[in-house]
Design brief:
The protein has about 270 residues and is an alpha+beta fold. The chain has one domain. It is built from two helices and 14 strands. Strands 1, 2, 3, 4, 5, 6, 7, 8, 9, 10, 11, 12, 13 and 14 form a 14-stranded antiparallel beta sheet that branches. β3 and β4 form a beta hairpin. Keywords: Signal.
Protein backbone atom coordinates (compact mmCIF):
# COMPACT_ATOMS: atom_id res chain seq x y z
CA UNK A 1 0.00 0.00 0.00
CA UNK A 2 2.91 2.27 -0.37
CA UNK A 3 1.57 4.74 -2.89
CA UNK A 4 -2.16 4.50 -2.38
CA UNK A 5 -4.30 7.28 -3.81
CA UNK A 6 -1.96 10.29 -3.79
CA UNK A 7 -1.64 11.28 -7.45
CA UNK A 8 -4.98 9.85 -8.64
CA UNK A 9 -6.88 12.08 -6.24
CA UNK A 10 -4.82 15.13 -7.08
CA UNK A 11 -5.24 14.65 -10.84
CA UNK A 12 -8.95 13.86 -10.70
CA UNK A 13 -9.79 16.79 -8.47
CA UNK A 14 -7.89 19.21 -10.66
CA UNK A 15 -9.72 17.80 -13.68
CA UNK A 16 -13.30 17.76 -12.37
CA UNK A 17 -13.38 20.13 -9.40
CA UNK A 18 -13.74 23.48 -11.22
CA UNK A 19 -15.58 26.45 -9.77
CA UNK A 20 -15.76 30.22 -10.06
CA UNK A 21 -16.36 30.96 -6.40
CA UNK A 22 -13.66 31.22 -3.76
CA UNK A 23 -15.73 29.00 -1.43
CA UNK A 24 -15.78 26.20 -4.00
CA UNK A 25 -12.07 26.63 -4.67
CA UNK A 26 -11.39 26.28 -0.95
CA UNK A 27 -13.56 23.15 -0.87
CA UNK A 28 -11.61 21.65 -3.80
CA UNK A 29 -8.31 22.38 -2.07
CA UNK A 30 -9.66 20.86 1.14
CA UNK A 31 -10.71 17.63 -0.58
CA UNK A 32 -7.41 17.46 -2.45
CA UNK A 33 -5.45 17.72 0.77
CA UNK A 34 -7.73 15.22 2.50
CA UNK A 35 -7.13 12.73 -0.30
CA UNK A 36 -3.38 13.27 -0.31
CA UNK A 37 -3.03 12.87 3.44
CA UNK A 38 -5.33 9.84 3.49
CA UNK A 39 -2.87 8.23 1.08
CA UNK A 40 0.04 9.15 3.34
CA UNK A 41 -1.79 7.61 6.31
CA UNK A 42 -2.16 4.31 4.43
CA UNK A 43 1.54 4.32 3.57
CA UNK A 44 2.49 4.94 7.20
CA UNK A 45 0.17 2.21 8.50
CA UNK A 46 1.51 -0.32 6.00
CA UNK A 47 5.11 0.43 6.98
CA UNK A 48 4.23 0.06 10.66
CA UNK A 49 2.54 -3.30 10.02
CA UNK A 50 5.95 -4.41 8.73
CA UNK A 51 7.29 -3.58 12.21
CA UNK A 52 4.59 -5.75 13.80
CA UNK A 53 5.63 -8.68 11.62
CA UNK A 54 9.28 -7.93 12.38
CA UNK A 55 8.84 -8.17 16.15
CA UNK A 56 7.01 -11.44 15.64
CA UNK A 57 10.02 -12.65 13.64
CA UNK A 58 12.24 -11.91 16.64
CA UNK A 59 10.75 -15.07 18.16
CA UNK A 60 12.47 -17.14 15.46
CA UNK A 61 16.14 -17.98 14.99
CA UNK A 62 16.50 -17.51 11.27
CA UNK A 63 18.14 -15.32 8.66
CA UNK A 64 16.25 -12.20 7.64
CA UNK A 65 16.10 -11.54 3.92
CA UNK A 66 14.00 -8.37 4.11
CA UNK A 67 16.22 -5.33 3.76
CA UNK A 68 14.15 -3.37 6.29
CA UNK A 69 13.94 -5.94 9.09
CA UNK A 70 14.65 -4.83 12.66
CA UNK A 71 17.72 -7.07 12.80
CA UNK A 72 19.31 -4.95 10.05
CA UNK A 73 18.23 -1.60 11.49
CA UNK A 74 21.00 -0.85 13.98
CA UNK A 75 19.74 2.54 15.17
CA UNK A 76 16.51 1.31 16.77
CA UNK A 77 16.67 0.18 20.41
CA UNK A 78 14.37 -2.78 21.13
CA UNK A 79 13.25 -3.64 24.67
CA UNK A 80 11.19 -6.76 25.35
CA UNK A 81 8.90 -7.50 28.29
CA UNK A 82 7.39 -10.97 28.67
CA UNK A 83 5.25 -12.93 31.09
CA UNK A 84 7.47 -15.74 32.41
CA UNK A 85 9.19 -15.80 29.04
CA UNK A 86 5.95 -16.29 27.11
CA UNK A 87 2.99 -14.29 25.86
CA UNK A 88 1.82 -11.61 26.13
CA UNK A 89 5.00 -9.92 24.95
CA UNK A 90 5.53 -6.18 24.69
CA UNK A 91 8.19 -4.76 22.40
CA UNK A 92 9.24 -1.14 22.80
CA UNK A 93 10.97 0.25 19.71
CA UNK A 94 12.80 3.50 20.43
CA UNK A 95 13.87 5.41 17.32
CA UNK A 96 15.29 8.30 19.31
CA UNK A 97 15.57 11.65 17.56
CA UNK A 98 15.96 10.04 14.15
CA UNK A 99 16.51 6.53 12.83
CA UNK A 100 16.60 5.76 9.09
CA UNK A 101 16.08 2.17 7.96
CA UNK A 102 17.95 0.54 5.06
CA UNK A 103 14.83 1.11 2.94
CA UNK A 104 14.97 4.85 3.62
CA UNK A 105 12.14 5.16 6.17
CA UNK A 106 12.98 7.72 8.86
CA UNK A 107 11.24 7.44 12.22
CA UNK A 108 11.48 9.32 15.52
CA UNK A 109 9.91 8.60 18.89
CA UNK A 110 8.60 5.33 20.27
CA UNK A 111 6.31 2.53 19.11
CA UNK A 112 5.07 -0.04 21.62
CA UNK A 113 3.78 -3.33 20.19
CA UNK A 114 2.05 -5.94 22.35
CA UNK A 115 1.39 -9.47 21.06
CA UNK A 116 -1.00 -11.86 22.78
CA UNK A 117 0.37 -14.72 20.66
CA UNK A 118 2.20 -15.28 17.40
CA UNK A 119 0.28 -13.00 15.04
CA UNK A 120 -0.11 -15.74 12.45
CA UNK A 121 -2.14 -17.80 14.93
CA UNK A 122 -5.95 -17.48 14.79
CA UNK A 123 -7.30 -15.18 17.48
CA UNK A 124 -3.95 -13.49 18.15
CA UNK A 125 -4.07 -9.74 18.74
CA UNK A 126 -1.39 -7.10 18.28
CA UNK A 127 -1.85 -3.58 19.62
CA UNK A 128 0.28 -0.66 18.50
CA UNK A 129 0.68 2.54 20.49
CA UNK A 130 2.87 5.48 19.49
CA UNK A 131 4.52 8.11 21.66
CA UNK A 132 5.86 11.33 20.12
CA UNK A 133 6.16 9.35 16.91
CA UNK A 134 6.86 10.55 13.39
CA UNK A 135 7.44 8.67 10.15
CA UNK A 136 9.15 10.43 7.26
CA UNK A 137 8.44 13.75 8.96
CA UNK A 138 4.72 13.19 9.56
CA UNK A 139 3.26 12.82 13.05
CA UNK A 140 1.13 9.74 13.69
CA UNK A 141 -0.86 8.68 16.76
CA UNK A 142 -3.89 6.57 17.64
CA UNK A 143 -4.55 3.04 18.85
CA UNK A 144 -4.10 0.33 16.20
CA UNK A 145 -5.40 -3.19 16.78
CA UNK A 146 -4.59 -6.12 14.50
CA UNK A 147 -6.71 -9.21 15.11
CA UNK A 148 -6.01 -12.52 13.40
CA UNK A 149 -9.31 -13.62 11.86
CA UNK A 150 -7.86 -16.52 9.87
CA UNK A 151 -9.95 -19.38 8.61
CA UNK A 152 -8.94 -22.91 7.67
CA UNK A 153 -8.13 -21.68 4.16
CA UNK A 154 -6.93 -18.09 4.67
CA UNK A 155 -4.38 -16.18 6.79
CA UNK A 156 -6.00 -12.82 7.46
CA UNK A 157 -6.21 -9.89 9.85
CA UNK A 158 -8.55 -7.08 10.73
CA UNK A 159 -6.86 -3.71 11.20
CA UNK A 160 -8.79 -1.20 13.29
CA UNK A 161 -7.57 2.32 13.99
CA UNK A 162 -9.38 4.46 16.55
CA UNK A 163 -8.79 8.09 17.49
CA UNK A 164 -6.11 8.40 14.84
CA UNK A 165 -4.34 11.72 14.37
CA UNK A 166 -1.99 12.59 11.54
CA UNK A 167 0.11 15.73 11.13
CA UNK A 168 1.20 16.53 7.58
CA UNK A 169 4.54 17.98 6.53
CA UNK A 170 3.03 21.48 6.47
CA UNK A 171 1.58 21.11 9.98
CA UNK A 172 -2.06 20.41 9.05
CA UNK A 173 -3.80 18.02 11.44
CA UNK A 174 -6.20 15.28 10.30
CA UNK A 175 -8.28 12.90 12.37
CA UNK A 176 -9.09 9.44 11.09
CA UNK A 177 -10.65 6.09 11.88
CA UNK A 178 -10.43 2.97 9.76
CA UNK A 179 -11.48 -0.65 9.65
CA UNK A 180 -9.87 -2.83 6.97
CA UNK A 181 -9.68 -6.59 6.44
CA UNK A 182 -6.57 -8.01 4.77
CA UNK A 183 -5.36 -11.48 3.89
CA UNK A 184 -2.21 -13.09 2.59
CA UNK A 185 -3.06 -14.80 -0.69
CA UNK A 186 0.50 -15.76 -1.73
CA UNK A 187 3.72 -16.43 0.18
CA UNK A 188 2.32 -18.04 3.32
CA UNK A 189 4.47 -21.14 2.88
CA UNK A 190 7.86 -19.39 2.83
CA UNK A 191 10.06 -17.64 5.41
CA UNK A 192 10.59 -14.54 3.25
CA UNK A 193 8.21 -11.79 2.23
CA UNK A 194 9.47 -11.18 -1.30
CA UNK A 195 6.85 -13.57 -2.68
CA UNK A 196 4.00 -12.19 -0.56
CA UNK A 197 0.82 -10.82 -2.10
CA UNK A 198 -1.60 -9.08 0.26
CA UNK A 199 -5.26 -8.58 -0.58
CA UNK A 200 -7.27 -5.81 1.08
CA UNK A 201 -10.72 -7.23 0.57
CA UNK A 202 -13.06 -5.17 2.73
CA UNK A 203 -13.13 -1.93 4.69
CA UNK A 204 -13.02 1.84 4.71
CA UNK A 205 -11.31 4.89 6.15
CA UNK A 206 -12.79 8.26 7.06
CA UNK A 207 -10.44 11.24 7.27
CA UNK A 208 -11.59 14.61 8.58
CA UNK A 209 -10.23 18.07 9.20
CA UNK A 210 -10.91 20.17 12.30
CA UNK A 211 -13.17 22.40 10.15
CA UNK A 212 -15.52 19.45 9.60
CA UNK A 213 -14.79 18.51 5.96
CA UNK A 214 -14.24 14.80 5.40
CA UNK A 215 -13.54 12.09 2.84
CA UNK A 216 -14.57 8.44 3.01
CA UNK A 217 -12.73 5.81 0.95
CA UNK A 218 -14.29 2.35 0.63
CA UNK A 219 -12.95 -0.84 -0.94
CA UNK A 220 -15.56 -1.95 -3.47
CA UNK A 221 -13.44 -4.62 -5.21
CA UNK A 222 -10.45 -6.24 -3.43
CA UNK A 223 -7.09 -4.50 -3.81
CA UNK A 224 -3.96 -6.54 -4.53
CA UNK A 225 -0.53 -5.39 -3.35
CA UNK A 226 2.47 -7.64 -4.16
CA UNK A 227 5.50 -7.07 -1.95
CA UNK A 228 7.67 -6.62 -5.04
CA UNK A 229 5.46 -4.00 -6.72
CA UNK A 230 5.44 -0.34 -5.69
CA UNK A 231 1.77 0.08 -6.63
CA UNK A 232 -1.56 -1.62 -6.17
CA UNK A 233 -2.04 -3.89 -9.17
CA UNK A 234 -5.76 -4.61 -9.05
CA UNK A 235 -8.99 -3.51 -7.37
CA UNK A 236 -11.49 -0.66 -7.12
CA UNK A 237 -11.98 2.10 -4.54
CA UNK A 238 -15.08 4.25 -4.11
CA UNK A 239 -14.67 7.90 -3.09
CA UNK A 240 -17.28 9.92 -1.23
CA UNK A 241 -16.29 13.44 -0.22
CA UNK A 242 -17.31 17.07 -0.38
CA UNK A 243 -16.30 17.26 -4.06
CA UNK A 244 -14.90 13.86 -4.99
CA UNK A 245 -17.55 11.33 -6.07
CA UNK A 246 -16.62 8.29 -8.14
CA UNK A 247 -14.37 5.23 -8.29
CA UNK A 248 -10.79 4.34 -9.13
CA UNK A 249 -9.97 1.09 -10.96
CA UNK A 250 -6.37 -0.12 -10.61
CA UNK A 251 -6.61 -2.63 -13.48
CA UNK A 252 -6.43 -6.40 -13.81
CA UNK A 253 -3.09 -7.35 -12.27
CA UNK A 254 -0.25 -5.70 -14.21
CA UNK A 255 2.48 -4.10 -12.10
CA UNK A 256 2.22 -0.61 -13.57
CA UNK A 257 1.31 2.93 -12.56
CA UNK A 258 -1.95 3.18 -14.50
CA UNK A 259 -5.54 3.43 -13.25
CA UNK A 260 -8.90 4.68 -14.53
CA UNK A 261 -11.11 7.11 -12.63
CA UNK A 262 -14.87 7.02 -13.37
CA UNK A 263 -17.15 9.82 -12.20
CA UNK A 264 -20.69 9.23 -10.96
CA UNK A 265 -21.92 10.52 -14.33
CA UNK A 266 -19.92 7.88 -16.22
CA UNK A 267 -17.04 10.01 -17.51
CA UNK A 268 -13.65 8.26 -17.43
CA UNK A 269 -10.17 9.69 -16.96
CA UNK A 270 -6.91 7.75 -17.45
CA UNK A 271 -4.67 8.28 -14.43
CA UNK A 272 -0.90 7.93 -14.11
CA UNK A 273 -0.03 7.20 -10.50
Amino acid sequence: MRKLLILPFMTVLLSIGTSCSSDDENTNQSDTELAKESAAIEVAESFDFDLVLDVEDLNFSRDFTEEDSISKNGCVVVTTQTTNGGFPKTYTLDFGTGCTSPRGITRTGIIEITLTDMLRNPGAVATVERRNYTINGRGLSGLVTYTNTSTSTSIQWNRNVSNGSFTSLNGSVFNFNSDVDTRLIQGAGTLTRTDDVVELFMGNRTVSRPNGSSLTITISQPLLKPYTCANITQGVLDFNGTVLQGSLDYGSGACDNQAVYTTVTGNTINITL
